Every structure is written in structure tokens, then in C-alpha cells.
């Protein structure tokens, strides 16, 4: 399947290694020696389901003539062409994606030969109700000018007028993400926009902190761009902390996950968050995502930039003590 978004044409060494180990265990145990456990079997792409079936049901797929992805996709998947926003954010384009299942009962029947599926409704765990809030903000004049420049750069790249080593769509997209987060990431001399994502996040985080003083409730702030480097350059993490401290939050109650670089240090940090000693924890999705156990007093979660996978939104929905929670999310616009 070529020219279909979301389907990689290359293999990963760690995936090939896992596949070989699964095949070896299948030979030793007759297909009964591998157990996978996951809460998000399909978190980012529909192709992930084929990958799991290939690990656990390779002989079944081969017997049914679906050992190759194209055969499996032709049986159970459908490509959909839709109009979507262009990467530079100033126009629209048609994009084909592998985005819909069909023959779903048959697919589920085959998958259940190797899967024990438990949904949240079946488990009925005591998770809290979440309130999802999108803060929609207007871009500054500087940001609007930057977006126009992105469009011009993209046209030049598509026309082949620019050497790819000088400018390319990946660089333009990354600059667009920086612009959406804070215009100072592209030019430190630009003013700090009053209604920027960072300032709105600071305002929301301070309000939640102030309201939770009695119970010492805690918050997480996710930001994948502009992580602290310690070299004196502008970054969002230090900017957020400095503004929160200026509003009256003790500096020791705000922590960056990046400053805790060993498992022992992380365990101590997480214990402080659970105890309410650290009440605002900032981190990126890879560092503060899976495996972070700090939910005892967690009351709010903020996304300053949009994570890549849908499963990365909603980490506050876990079984824990406090019942009311707020998650401030980013849908890709100039918002928090």
C-alpha cells in the first residue's frame, strides 16, 4: 500500500526482533508461549491491529492467505480520501488514509481467538468523571504573519525551488508547532503575547492550585516542545514556572520531570506529588506518560501542545481518590 498516509513503508529493527522472538517461542510451544498485555492495542493507526495479529496469530494469518499486510488490508480495511488542513495551516488538500474497517465481525472473531478483551464498561472501575475544556485563543499579529510565511515557504518547497537541506515540509511543520505554542520560540525578541497559550495555561494552573490549597491537590502540565536545556535560552518550562512563582506559588511545589534523570529520583518525585508536596509537575509525553503513578491527588491535566497519539490524552482518567477532574486539551489550533 503506497501513497496512503499513516502506513510506514519501512520496518523497525526492534519490531523485527520482537517478531523473530515470537516465531521462535511459537515453534517451541506450539503457538501458546506468548502473552501480550496492553491498554491501547490500537492507539494511533489501524495497522497496529495487524501488527499484533502478526505477532500472536502468524500461523492463522498465513493459513488464511493474509500473511502480507496488503492482503489483510484488502480484506478488513478501506482507504478513505478526505479534505484536510494542509501542514502549513493556510489551505486544504485531499489526503488518502487507511481509516475504516469493514468485515468487522469476521475480524473480531479471528482476533478473539488470541485476545481476551475487557472494555471499561465491562470492568466498571471507579474512575472519576472528567470535564474536557478547550481554550480557544486568537493568534497574535506576529503569529498571523508567521503563518503566512509558512504558506509561502511550503509553496516554494512543493515547487522544488528550495534545497531540502535548507527548508522542507518537516521543518515548516515543526516551526508551525513552535509558533502555535509561543512565538518567542522562533524569535526571542518578539513580545510575550498577553493571551498566548502559555499565559492562559499559567492562569488556569494558578486558579486550580489556589482552589485546591486545602486538599493540596496536584496538576500535570504536558509540553513536548521547548523542554528545559539549562543553557540560558528561552524555553516554555522556565517561563511557566517563573510566572507561577511570581503569582505566589512556592518554587519547591513546581517540578520538571527532566530534572529527575534516574529511576530512584523519579520514584522520590512521584512520592512527593502523591503526598501533595509537589503540586505542579511538568513534563513531556514520553517522560511523563506511561508508568507515571501520581494520581492520588491529581485534579487537573493541561496539554500545552497536542500529543501525537489519541491515547496520550486522558491519562488523568484513572482510579484514584479525588472525584472531580479537569483536562485542558489542545485540538491543534492556537489553544491550550
From TrEMBL:
Signal peptide: none annotated. Coiled coil: none annotated. InterPro entries: DNA_Protect_Modify, P-loop_NTPase. PANTHER family: ADENINE-SPECIFIC METHYLTRANSFERASE (PTHR41313), DNA METHYLASE ADENINE-SPECIFIC DOMAIN-CONTAINING PROTEIN (PTHR41313:SF1). This is DNA methylase. The lineage of its organism: Bacteria, Bacillati, Bacillota, Clostridia, Lachnospirales.
Amino acid at each position: 500500500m503506497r501513497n496512503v498516509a499513516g502506513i510506514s513503508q519501512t520496518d523497525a529493527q526492534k519490531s523485527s526482533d520482537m517478531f523473530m522472538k515470537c516465531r521462535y517461542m511459537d515453534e517451541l510451544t506450539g503457538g501458546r508461549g506468548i502473552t501480550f498485555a496492553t491498554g491501547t492495542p490500537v492507539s494511533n493507526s489501524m495497522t497496529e491491529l495487524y501488527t499484533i495479529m502478526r505477532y500472536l496469530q502468524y500461523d492463522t494469518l498465513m493459513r488464511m492467505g493474509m500473511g502480507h499486510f496488503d492482503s489483510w488490508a484488502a480484506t478488513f480495511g478501506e482507504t478513505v480520501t478526505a479534505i484536510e488542513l494542509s501542514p502549513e495551516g493556510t489551505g486544504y488538500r485531499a489526503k488518502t488514509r487507511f481509516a475504516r474497517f469493514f468485515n468487522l465481525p469476521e475480524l473480531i472473531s479471528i482476533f478473539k481467538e488470541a485476545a481476551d478483551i475487557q472494555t471499561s464498561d465491562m470492568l466498571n472501575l471507579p474512575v472519576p468523571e472528567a470535564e474536557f475544556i478547550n481554550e480557544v485563543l486568537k493568534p497574535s499579529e506576529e503569529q498571523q504573519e508567521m503563518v503566512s510565511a509558512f504558506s509561502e515557504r511550503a509553496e516554494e518547497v512543493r515547487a522544488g525551488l528550495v534545497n531540502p537541506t535548507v527548508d522542507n515540509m518537516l521543518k515548516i511543520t515543526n516551526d508551525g508547532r513552535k509558533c502555535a505554542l509561543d512565538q518567542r520560540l522562533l524569535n526571542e525578541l518578539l513580545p510575550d503575547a498577553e493571551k498566548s497559550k502559555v499565559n492562559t495555561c499559567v492562569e488556569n494552573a494558578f486558579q486550580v492550585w489556589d482552589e485546591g490549597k486545602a486538599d493540596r491537590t496536584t496538576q500535570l502540565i504536558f509540553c513536548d516542545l521547548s523542554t528545559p536545556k539549562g543553557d540560558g535560552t528561552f524555553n516554555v518550562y522556565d517561563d511557566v514556572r517563573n510566572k507561577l512563582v511570581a503569582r505566589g506559588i512556592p518554587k519547591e511545589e513546581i517540578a520538571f520531570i527532566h530534572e529527575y534523570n534516574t529511576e530512584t529520583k523519579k520514584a522520590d518525585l512521584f512520592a512527593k506529588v502523591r503526598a501533595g508536596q509537589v503540586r505542579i509537575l511538568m513534563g513531556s509525553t514520553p517522560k511523563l506518560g506511561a508508568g507515571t503513578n501520581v494520581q492520588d491527588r491529581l485534579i487537573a491535566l493541561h496539554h500545552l501542545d497536542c500529543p501525537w497519539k489519541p491515547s496520550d490524552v486522558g491519562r488523568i482518567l484513572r482510579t484514584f481518590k479525588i472525584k472531580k477532574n479537569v483536562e485542558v486539551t489542545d485540538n491543534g489550533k492556537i489553544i491550550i
